[in-house]
Fold:
Amino acid sequence: MHLKAVALLGAVAFLGAAQAVYAADMPVKAPVHSEPAAAVPYNWSGFYVGGNAGASWAKSDVTSNLIPGPVVPGSAALYGGVPANIAVINAIGTGSLSGNGRFTGGGQIGFNWQFAPSWLVGIEADFNSFNEKLSLSRTGTTTIGPATVTNSLSTNWLATVRGRIGVTFDRLLLYVTGGAAFTDLNYSQVYSDGAAPPGAGSSSKKSTKTGWTVGGGGEWALSDRWTVKAEYLYVQFDGQNTTTLLCAGGCGTFSQNLTGVTGDLRVHIARIGLNYRFGGL
Structure:
């Protein structure tokens, strides 16, 4: 019995050793490495909405022209009969309208279409606060005393509708843009002098202007839905005009017309924005 047990244990040991030798002689399989999935390029196509904020710098010019037109016979000498007075008033009412940089901010909505495969075309509309305030106020000396002419130009809002064309580098978009611009343009002219009786007059004109804009920028995709952009726009509108009736003594002593004409309103805008995309096509 004892010998049988020893023989059985010997057989088990022999089989175990043989299995180990066989396993050692088997070729070792190389580890399997799966190829990483190819990165999907960012798709800029689709609708988006967002907001923007920045600064604007505006400039314009104004030209004033005093037109003799006395109501009372013999009163022309007050202004119209003295060429030097006309020259002074025209000069103090003519020059550059200046202002400081102003805050601008608002919202935009747009649509992009990416094609071929890195080009992009789109359209964007925005509406922004646009509180420009430009003025020119000067005083000159005439034969009847000092005279002051103040010209002011202001706006409240700005809207644009622009096309965009650009090229994409995955999550980076570089683009140029241009289209139509709209604003409310308010122009006023105020006159006063030190004559006896004093002369005074004021006038204003307000209208909605259509102009044009051109610019460019860059946009970066923070995620599949959110993008951030930096943008520059140049905007230009035609000028405004008004006619001020200058009167003294209730217009019974004299009256004259002072016309004012502004040049183009020229605006530079630098701003940043944040957009939310509704998904690619």
